[in-house]
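Chain A, query sequence.
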Amino acid sequence: MSVATEFRQESEPGTGETTWRTVHRVVFPVDGDTDTLPLYVDFDAARRVVEEDTTSKRGSKTPQLVVQSSQIRSDFILDRRRLSLPAHQRVSFGTYFNAFPASYWRAHTDVQKVRLSIEVDAEATVIVYKSSPRGSSNRVQSMHTSGSTTATCELPLTTFADGGWYWFDLVAHGRDVTLKSADWSVPQPDGFKPGTLSIAVTTFNRPDYCVKHLRNFAGSEDLLGVMDRLIVTDQGNQKVRDEPGFDDAAANLGEKFTLVEQGNLGGSGGFARGMLEAVEGGESDYVMLLDDDVVVETEGVLRAVNFADFTRHPTIVGGHMFNLFERSVIHNFGEGINQYRFQYEALGQERSAHDFAASNLRTTPWMHRRVDVDYNGWWMCLIPTSIIREIGLALPVFIKWDDVEYGIRAGANGYTTVSLPGAAVWHMPWTEKDDTIDWQAYFHQRNRWVAALLYSQYRKGGRLPIESFLKDVRHLLSLQYSAVELRNRALKDLLDGPSHLHETIGSKLAEIRAIRSSFPDAQVTNDLTQFPAVKRQHIPKFGLAPSRPKNYAQAVSSAFSGALRQLRPVSPAAKENPEAVVAAADARWWRLAHLDSALVSASDGTGASWYRRDNVRFRKQLLTSVILHARALGRWDELSSSYRKELPNFTSPEAWGKTFEAASVADEQKPSR
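Chain A, predicted structure.
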């Protein structure tokens, strides 16, 4: 039996009745990276204690965590499936990648039970645990092995309505024991047909990452068993086909690889092309959208496919995102939409930037409650092709909100999105950049409004218009005039109606970059010695720099005084020398509103910009913002009706096909490098 076949199916010996299908294998990292090891194996003897919650009005007890540190042993890992445990040692597999997310299977499939199979070569004890939605763990079963054998146990899924996981601990007795394999399998129904997928990667000038993808996928026999095609949509001028190693990597994939080259239509254009290629190819049940600059846990791709195979109805299955720079830190556990604000946000603030190395799955109570999401980011997201055929391709918005809108659109058509634990990639975190003040400010503004016009259930978009205007005010107080200019232009285009989306998707980026480049706050200088010396004529009151307002009254007072300052003429001295140096983390309205000029560090640390107050520009941009927001509010119902009516048209394969054709022609006119 081949490895790929073994992963997919196994019959119960001797009965001939139940066919068990492996859906979740226990795996290990093989690169010796101790940063990621806590996501696979937990070496700590976890202790959970209850201490008084001083914030509780009733003095109730709230679980608090005490984690015992221990040495992480990468030398225990033998290969992708095997681990060697020394005598009298104990390890737990109650971890992100190796625990079984029972509540997700309970909620979205008809599976009633799961079977754990563990193969060892010596005397050992296997202790099986389950958790409740509150994070409390319960010992379920203990299995003793006396030698080389495979131990199995069947476990019900009936008690996981709101949350909970299964996992096991392995204890070695008087001699070393090797865990040869372990997996979780579910009963396969009669007539079951496993699905296959195409993987669609969109790239722009990251040919090295794409070649790594090709090598990674070609080297996974199991993944090749379910992958019909890897579709790479190259939208850059540094071509993937020119990257060293491309020819060999592509040859290893053979007919399973498709390279598409087109002009830069952003993430939505690249992913829409991947969707279309997969649907028109006709061989795949699913298409998985994948960012180009991610590190993939290939086992997670297989788990997403297996989970989708068993869902009651076609379901979008997404993966989580871990920090590429802090490998044990997850971005968050679920994404949702605040309908009143019409803004995406983490579902529960405690789920943002959690470090598994500090508190692993077993010692993190909130992680045991199932998180039901509104959408999943397209860093890793599996979409059934049947859904695409019904509701269309991505929204033609270049970048930002395309993944959010698609999840909302799918939900409006009765389809669920699941962010599946155990399926994940590593990606650069958003904290390393601030894309709300660079050229992407245009797309943040326009696309949020487009999505709200399509789906907001609140009159006039709820709180969105006032939040949008106040954000302009904050940018103006922060001397970020380029961002306000782009946001104003976004509203102007929004008012033109839905026809502008396809018409401008290939040309808008160049236009807004040219506009932004003329503003001082957008001009980053890498050599800080080129700036004049810092001098300040008017010293701050009491020698203290402004600090973040502590309450609403302070915020109003600071904003009012800062706004009054914007109306005054700019000090001539501030035009010659910056008044202060402000770190990127401190570049907020309450700090910059009280300066005439400042050197502000770029969020990525590459340089700095010289922000300069411009009282004339402040008044003009503020007035423009007021007028545009008033027009958008006045025409809300008309615009909403127009965008909703045209949604099936501008997300259709026909509309996208014309855009792809135009982009391909434009791309042919550009040099390769």
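Confidence is low (pLDDT under 50) at residues 1-8, 49-68. The radius of gyration is 27 Å.
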